[in-house]
Amino acid sequence: MQKSDLRNLSLARREPAPAPLHVAIIMDGNGRWATARGLARVAGHRRGAASVRRAVEAALKLGVGTLTLYAFSSDNWQRPAPEVSALMRLFHDYLRKETAECAARGIRIAVIGRRDRLAPALRHEIEAAERATAHGRALVVRIAVDYSARDAILRAAARLKPAREATREEFSRQLASAIHSPACPDVDLLIRTGGEQRLSDFLLWESAYAELYFSPRMWPDFEAADLEAALDAFHSRQRRFGTVLEAAAG
Question: Is pTM, for the whole model, over 0.85?
Answer without folding.
Answer: yes
